[in-house]
Amino acid sequence: VDYMLFQNYPNPFNPSTTIEFSLPEDVANAKLSIYNALGEKVAELVNSSLPAGSYQYQWNAADIATGMYIYELRTEKYVSVRKMVLVK
User: Fold this and answer.
1) Is 20 helix (H, G, I), strand (E, B) or coil?
2) Considering the entire predicted model, what is its pTM?
């Protein structure tokens, strides 16, 4: 198993979407953050230590503006970003 950050679904979405990722080992500090097109953080879904495994998080963007967003999974050894689109 490798570090993996999967494409969210559904995408485009309104108002909520699911983000999945997998960790091949225990991670002392995992962060799953969401940024707008200007690079401003609009949400932080995870900021904690996590054991190895697969994870699924919901993001409800009901109070967030339509547009493109970037979500980032960051650990000590891995960083990955993907894009998603919120359409209202």
Assistant:
1) strand
2) 0.95
